[in-house]
Design brief:
Length: about 250
C-alpha cells in the first residue's frame, strides 16, 4: 500500500515548510503530489527542487487546458525537469481573460504523453461526485485505454462510495482521496463547487475526519488500493498525529 501527500504550491516558503512536515512522518509517505493552480505563480513541476526524490516519488499535476499538443511544450517540461511521474487532469478554464487556454482533451493528452514517454508513469484523476458511477467509470476506462497507469480520486466522505469504487477499480492502481473538512464554510464550498453530497453523520470536526480517514485506510488496504491525502488549511500535527498509517 502506498500513501501520497499533496502539497499546494502557495509560495516557495509555504511549500518548503509543508514538505519539512512530511519528512517528520518518516516512511509513512511514499509520494508527493503537487497540483498546478492558476492563481499561484509557482508551477507544479518547478517544486521538484524541494523534493528528496530518493525518499519520495514526485508527481506534478498538468492541466490539459494549459497545453497545445502541437506546441510540444509539455514534452519539453517533462524532459527539462526529468520527470518520471505525472498526473494529467482536465483543468478549469481561467476566470476572466487573464490567461489563454486550449481545448485540449485530457484523454488526448494522456495518449500523447504516453506515446512520447512510454517509460514514465502517467496518472489520471477521477471524481465520484461529478457524474453517476457508470458514467465516471466509463470515463476512467477511456483514460486507462489511452495509457493512464493509475488514478487519483477527488476526496471521499462516504465509506459506502469508497466500497463501490473499490469494486469498480479492480485491476487499476487507485489512490483514494482524503481531504479533511473542519469548518462549515469549507463544507459549503465542497457542496456548491464540487457537488459533494455528505452523509448524514458527517461532522466538521477533527474527530470525525480522523476516524473516517482511519476507516478508509483499513478498507483501502484490504482492497489493494492506496491513499491520497489532500490537507487544506488544517492543523497538520493535530490531524496526522492520530492517523493510523498501515506500517505502524
Amino acid at each position: 500500500m502506498k500513501i501520497s501527500f499533496e502539497i499546494v504550491p502557495r509560495s516557495e516558503q509555504a511549500f518548503a515548510e509543508q514538505y519539512q512536515f512530511v519528512q517528520t512522518l518518516g516512511s509513512s509517505i511514499d509520494l508527493i503530489n503537487v497540483p498546478d493552480i492558476q492563481r499561484f505563480s509557482t508551477r507544479s513541476w518547478e517544486t521538484v527542487k524541494h523534493i528528496d526524490r530518493s525518499r519520495h516519488q514526485f508527481i506534478p499535476h498538468f492541466r490539459a487546458i494549459d497545453f497545445d499538443l502541437k506546441s510540444g511544450d509539455i514534452f519539453h517540461i517533462i524532459e527539462q525537469y526529468e520527470l518520471d511521474h505525472v498526473l494529467l487532469v482536465s483543468g478549469d478554464p481561467p476566470e476572466g481573460l487573464k490567461r489563454s487556454f486550449y481545448k485540449t482533451n485530457v484523454v488526448d493528452l494522456i495518449r500523447a504523453v504516453t506515446l512520447r514517454f512510454p517509460k514514465i508513469s502517467v496518472y489520471a484523476g477521477f471524481d465520484s461526485h461529478r457524474n453517476g458511477v457508470q458514467d465516471e467509470c466509463n470515463y476512467i476506462k477511456r483514460k486507462a485505454d489511452a495509457g493512464a497507469c493509475g488514478f487519483f480520486s477527488q476526496p471521499f466522505y462516504d465509506m459506502r462510495m469508497i466500497e463501490i469504487y473499490a469494486e469498480q477499480m479492480q485491476g487499476l492502481e487507485t489512490f483514494i482521496g482524503l481531504s479533511p473538512i473542519t469548518t462549515e464554510s469549507s463544507m459549503k464550498y465542497w457542496e456548491v463547487k464540487n457537488k459533494v453530497q455528505f452523509p448524514a453523520n458527517f461532522k466538521t470536526d477533527y474527530e470525525w475526519n480522523i476516524e473516517f480517514a482511519n476507516q478508509a485506510i483499513k478498507l483501502a488496504q484490504e482492497a489493494g488500493m492506496n491513499i491520497y491525502f489532500m490537507p487544506i488549511r488544517i492543523d497538520l500535527e493535530k490531524y496526522f498525529g492520530k492517523i493510523a498509517f498501515p506500517n505502524e
